[in-house]
Amino acid sequence: MLQKTIKMLLLSTPVISAVLSTPANAWGQNGHRIVGEIASKHITDTTKLALVPLLDGDSLAQVATWADEMRSAPENFWQKKSSRWHYINFKEGDAKPHYDSDAHHNKETVSDILEGMEYSISVLQNQKASLAEKQFALRFLVHLVGDSHQPFHAGRGEDRGGNNISVTFFGQDTNLHSLWDTKLIENENLSYTEFAQFINTTNQALITDYLASSPSDWLIESNNIANSLYNENETNVSYSYIYKNLPIVKTRLQQGGIRLAGLLNTLFDKSAKPLVKALKMPTDSKL
């Protein structure tokens, strides 16, 4: 069995728990599709061509929900192991996660979302990997980039990423996790294509800022947002909460789409310019 290879960067903010919580839902279907749809507007022609056999007739928006849909499959991987791919728990007192471009995880032993992204990237880079293995890796990677931008996929294990925190949404009982992955998005009454169109950006300064990051950065950002929401401890959600927090939801979805495109361009188009179309990850020697 391969040892866990995530390197830990010692810093002074909240950290990851070694004990993972029970499964949490991801962005709702529309959230994931919005991320995939935005990404499709920012991948290069070279990347689009490389993705054709991997997508097998689907779009990035279509495959974005696959990793959640497959959790009902009877195979042992989906029933016993796949849930760990979707999140990472933070616990105050340890270190931040550090993306390891040299990590080579085993599909069966992936223990959190960062390892899941590392595994998927390594498979897509592996010229010896089969088409089926690469299709699996791409579908999971599209989903996990979306998940990494949902604040409560980098939340606390003790409340299962907000799943155990009860709130009301205009008087309807729900929980904090569900509020952020589904209800705030669906309250806009937009299709995923409309939502993606409304929040997509061509602002190059903003895109450059988003692309100067690595997968660990996305999780740290999510944890910082989750902590602020934990601290506010608002349980009766209505118009004022939406006014304050919906812009954060839109930003996270926008960032997820731009960064997914940047990651795919990094993997499939060597001519894609970092900080323009591809990621530039300052703390990593390579991707």
Automatic annotation (TrEMBL):
Coiled-coil residues are none
One Pfam family from the record: S1-P1_nuclease
Which domain of life does the UniProt lineage start with?
Bacteria
Recorded hits in SUPFAM superfamilies, A to Z, give: Phospholipase C/P1 nuclease
InterPro entries xref list: PLipase_C/P1_nuclease_dom_sf, S1/P1nuclease
Query: Which species does the entry assign this protein to?
Result: Pseudoalteromonas lipolytica
Q: Which UniProt keywords apply?
A: Disulfide bond, Endonuclease, Glycoprotein, Hydrolase, Metal-binding, Nuclease, Signal
Signal sequence range = 1-26
> What is the designated name of this protein?
S1/P1 nuclease
